[in-house]
Write a structure and sequence with these properties.
Keywords: Membrane, Transmembrane, Transmembrane helix. This protein is α+β, with helices and mostly antiparallel strands. It contains 9 helices and 5 strands, in the order ααααβαββαβααβα.
């Protein structure tokens, strides 16, 4: 009898622990991307065990805390000073996550489009960058304008942009800097919490005594591990945008000026017709005199 009670108590403790892990994962695991505010439903096996446990008050408290504190942060979004201060506490000075991009339009010398285009490509490759995309338009069989987009290391952003601007007459230029530090810090915090949940679930997996308990733990473990991979992917994406800046350069040769059409008036037309008539008459007379001789 006592053995059964101890076994039953152990199942209750296991169920309560699973409910707590579920609550924490729901709170911290779902807002991975800034545009994904929805909270995914918990696995049905765990919901059934949640009805048997006594963790409802703790669940409500955690959910209220989550709703009050968690906000999605988009790339380039204006961030309050309070959040920036928190971010600085996590990242050392000079280690902020800033994405830098630029767009510029240049007018190059006539017949120099292809040469300038190739110079930009070689410039990107010389600093460890590459061409992301390019396109061009033809004018009378010759390349006259086009766009080349390059990715270069962030440390070379300023020098590369300066060299590109010197290749022609600047028509326009636009430089942007997006601070993604708050989002990155938030992702790091969630990743740490999810990994802690993963360790707990792995321990519970070893203590599970029934098939039902094993399935419940495995389901939640798979969910947590999936969230970990999603957050890692987002962090890697942000790291790439920060490490390599994007420069888009539009090149164009001077416009070809069309010849102005000759304006003809009525007097000019009459004069030309009369002149042609006189020339025809003169030709007929000359031809007649030649035959008479």
């Amino acid at each position: 009898m006592e053995a059964r009670e101890r076994k039953w108590d152990r199942r209750v403790v296991l169920a309560a622990a699973l409910v707590l892990v579920l609550v924490i994962s729901i709170i911290l695991g779902l807002a991975v991307f800034a545009c994904a505010p929805a909270r995914a439903p918990a696995p049905p096996e765990l919901l059934e065990k949640g009805e048997e446990g006594a963790a409802a008050p703790q669940m409500e408290a955690l959910l209220l805390e989550e709703d009050a504190s968690r906000e999605a942060v988009e790339v380039g979004e204006a961030v309050p000073a309070e959040e920036l201060a928190v971010s600085e506490a996590y990242l050392p000075a000079g280690k902020r996550k800033v994405i830098r991009n630029a767009q510029t339009s240049l007018e190059v010398e006539e017949g120099k489009f292809s040469e300038t285009f190739d110079r930009i490509v070689l410039l990107a490759e010389s600093v460890g960058g590459w061409v992301s995309s390019s396109d061009s338009q033809a004018w009378e069989g010759e390349l006259a304008s086009g766009t080349v987009v390059i990715r270069v290391p962030a440390k070379n952003f300023t020098s590369v942009l300066t060299q590109i601007k010197a290749m022609g007459k600047i028509l326009s230029i636009n430089i942007q800097g997006s601070d993604v530090t708050p989002e990155y810090v938030d992702l790091e915090s969630r990743l740490r919490n999810l990994k802690a949940q993963e360790r707990i679930l792995l321990e519970l997996m070893g203590k599970a005594e029934t098939i039902g308990d094993t399935i419940a733990v495995q389901t939640q473990l798979s969910y947590v591990q999936q969230e970990i991979e999603i957050i890692k992917g987002r962090m890697q994406y942000l790291d790439d945008l920060v490490a390599f800046s994007t420069i888009q350069a539009y090149l164009t040769e001077p416009e070809v000026k069309e010849r102005e059409p000759i304006e003809w008036g009525f007097g000019d037309a009459f004069y030309s017709a009369l002149k042609m008539f006189v020339e025809v008459i003169q030709g007929v007379i000359v031809l007649g005199l030649t035959q008479l001789e």
